Automatic annotation (TrEMBL):
Pfam families named in the record: TetR_C_6 (PF13977), TetR_N (PF00440)
Organism: Streptomyces chumphonensis
Listed InterPro entries: BetI_C, Homeodomain-like_sf, HTH-type_TetR-like_transc_reg, HTH_TetR, Tet_transcr_reg_TetR-rel_C_sf
MF annotations from Gene Ontology: DNA-binding transcription factor activity; transcription cis-regulatory region binding
Protein name, as recorded: TetR/AcrR family transcriptional regulator
Keyword check for NAD: no
């Protein structure tokens, strides 16, 4: 009887290998040859799932963005709007080794997306969704009957995104997590600022 292959699982495994290689050696380390060798597949088998490096890169990018969204949705969202906002902000900051590694992958993929319009469009859409979700959380947390598109709210949402992206980049220089207390202190300051 032929072996039943879970093709979706194979794709996830290949993406995990690409991510691991990017974490270890940057974007250049994730060649088709190195992915095949690390995954233990024949080159032809890899091409069945991903016809090119760009297709693996796109899937890896989508995987990292999906993981960020899953972290936000992973726990039950707190009922208190301020705690819900805190939860969402903390989910996007590099507050553990796993998220610092994810930041390394994102940085490599951001650079690659500058020359790949499909990836750039994917990330722009992610940023728009992220900004909208944050603006809704901020408006609710402020409790001032402001809409999510009020200038003060959108300004704070942009600030959080800029800090999260900057923290992700900076964390790569401190992969031991030395900056985690600073990022947590930022969240505390942000929550104070929301009520001012």
């Amino acid at each position: 009887m032929p072996k039943i292959i879970d093709h979706d699982q194979r794709r996830r495994e290949i993406v995990a290998v690409a991510k691991k290689l990017i974490i270890q050696g940057g974007f250049e380390a994730a060649t088709m040859r190195s992915i095949v060798a690390e995954a233990g597949y024949a080159n032809g088998a890899l091409k069945r799932y991903f016809p090119s490096k760009d297709s693996i890169v796109a899937a890896t990018f989508q995987s990292v963005l999906a993981e960020m969204n899953e972290r936000i949705a992973a726990d039950e969202t707190p009922a208190d709007p301020r705690e819900a906002l805190r939860h969402d902000v903390e989910a996007t900051l590099p507050l553990d080794t796993y998220r610092i590694d994810s930041a390394r992958v994102l940085l490599a993929l951001w650079e690659h997306s500058m020359a790949n319009e499909e990836l750039a469009a994917l990330y722009r859409a992610h940023l728009q969704d992220w900004r909208g979700r944050l603006a809704e959380r901020i408006a609710a947390a402020r409790g001032a009957d402001e809409s999510a598109d009020a200038p003060a709210v959108t300004h704070l949402a942009q600030e959080v995104i800029a800090v999260a992206i900057g923290a992700s980049v900076t964390s790569l220089m401190f992969p031991d997590g030395a900056l985690i207390p600073e990022y947590r202190a930022y969240v505390d300051r942000l929550m104070q600022k929301i009520t001012d």
